[in-house]
TrEMBL record:
GO terms for molecular function: hydrolase activity; sulfur dioxygenase activity. It comes from Rossellomorea vietnamensis. Signal peptide: none annotated. This is MBL fold metallo-hydrolase. PANTHER family: BETA-LACTAMASE DOMAIN PROTEIN, PERSULFIDE DIOXYGENASE ETHE1.
Amino acid sequence: MTVKAMNAKEVTQKVFNNEDLFILDVRNEDSFQDWKIEGRNFDYLNIPYFDLLDGVEEIMDKLPKDKDILVVCAKEGSSVMVAEMISDEGVDVSYLEGGMKAWSEHLEPVKVGDLKDGGELYQFVRIGKGCLSYMVVSNGEAAIIDSTRMADIYTEFAQSVNARITHVFDTHLHADHISGGRIIAEDTGATYWLPPKDAEEVTFQYAALEDGNEVTIGNTKINIHALYSPGHTIGSTSFVVDEQYLMTGDILFIDSIGRPDLAGLAEDWVGDLRETLYTRYKELSNDLIVLPAHFMVIDELNEDGTVSEKLGVLYAQNHGLNINDESEFRSLVTENLPPQPNAYQEIRKTNMGKITPDRDQQREMEIGPNRCAVR
């Protein structure tokens, strides 16, 4: 039977389309439990590769006859060998091209909507890590918000829509992934914006992103308005785009709220977080469409693959926005938090420009899920 390579984009489309898929994950159990490919209609079997070195006969009755089978490992090699053994047993099977490292790096651009006077807004879904970044396009110009380190994907996409990148923003100093903002700005000549309260230790030049800053994109004057919104970090800044969209960074998610502890200052920042969520955002229109910098679970994806919801709906449904007792809120966001992101201290130092890990080191630092939310 045949063995096929299935790439991350093809798996992403199966996630978006709610298709069936059976995943045989041959990584160690702890790696599988920590982080795996998620889909609403995906089934899983985790058997470590070393348990299959003598053959796959004992697991053949656990493999479905009516679903596509995908073998997954960390880098690809082990999954190819297991897939070949399954094929020798007479079953069609695929392996994940590039393994979980490729899954971690895949970005899927999805159009969120149209802006006034012909502009467009795109969301880049980093499906394997839950990171969300954005591109605002208007009349030949583009702005990027919260980019990942895969800089070429943004510059190539801008070229494909005939736009020149003129501004790059980070809503805050990221701790769960390495920003591509500075590299994109250097490569394109764009202005790189960063909140100065998060940038006290950075080693490079940047434009200070302050509350009330207004940046326009293209001759049609698509407006990006900065709103100081501390809590996840002391400098966290949101954006109101085209008076339609609220980009919340890591302050507010669809099904949760941001955690204030990644710089070791949870007790200091919890009041800022509550002030942002319960006062600053409350003053905004309920009709604004919230676009966060992360999602936590696959159920947060809409039918078209985007992650978004109206602010008013979140105030009605998001538990983190409905805790009247301040002590209960403080307890929620400072106690019983999930583990901190892998290598988050090294990631913060990289985003400050203090260390310059090579590509392989950067990939290793980012392996695993994002953990920016209170759960």
